[in-house]
Amino acid sequence: MTIRASRFAPACLASLLAVCIFGSAQADEVQVAVAANFTAPIQAIAADFEKDTGHKLVAAYGATGQFYSQIKNGAPFEVFLSADDTTPQKLESEGEAVKGSRFTYAIGTLALWSAKDGYVDAKGKVLTDNQYQHLSIANPKAAPYGLAATQVLAKLGLTDKVKAKIVEGQSITQAYQFVSTGNAELGFVALSQIYKDGKVSSGSAWIVPAEMHEPIKQDAVILNKGKDNPAAKALVDYLKAPKAAAVIKSYGYQL
């Protein structure tokens, strides 16, 4: 019996080790609510994050206002990457987030974009010419980029003139999709959706000057459900480090 036990001990030990490793992997996952405009950068960052730290990032994408409601209703998110700075601050003040964990991870840039080459000029004159039939924007009540778009329209005196032409998406992703599928000739999108490595990757665009709308300051915060998860803290630290910062900047964000 002693000999048989010694022969099977390695197998038992291997099984036990596999259980331990599996349990560790589960503990090292972090559930992240990500503002839709930051989809491409966080997908690029996630692979490096897992490789460099061993932790796994599990992301959900959507509008900031919708995420606020979900978090208030008990959604299992542990870190929130917002498209503004007011929503994380509000969650912190309401006791839904870890105090002192909030920081600005990016400053967004708004762009007027068409999927057609040459349709949008470099100064956005196409907007004031008003020859298009549909203009896509994100819901200004749920998406900070949508709010910024309405501020640009107001500054140009176009609010009433284009009101009947607006096609509204529930998130910046849907606003982008309306343009990319041809349901709108042009629309206001996040620069990060159409920009990579220093240039617009498709179609034509006007990069909206920052002074034409309130700053799109995007804050991150650790939520209460992530306060004891080391992967949540690791992600926040990783987003502040040079490697992630370089990725964020490559998508047209300011830091």
UniProtKB/TrEMBL annotation:
Record's signal peptide: 1-27
PANTHER family per record: MOLYBDATE-BINDING PERIPLASMIC PROTEIN (PTHR30632), TUNGSTATE_MOLYBDATE_CHROMATE-BINDING PROTEIN MODA (PTHR30632:SF14)
GO biological process: molybdate ion transport
A GO molecular-function descriptor: metal ion binding
Top-rank lineage group of the source organism: Bacteria
Subunit structure: The complex is composed of two ATP-binding proteins (ModC), two transmembrane proteins (ModB) and a solute-binding protein (ModA).
Keyword line: Metal-binding, Molybdenum, Signal, Tungsten
One Pfam entry name: SBP_bac_11
InterPro entries, alphabetized: AvModA-like_subst-bd, ModA, ModA/WtpA
UniProt name for this protein: Molybdate-binding protein ModA
Organism annotation: Pseudomonas fluorescens
Residue positions binding molybdate: 64, 172
Record-stated family: Belongs to the bacterial solute-binding protein ModA family.
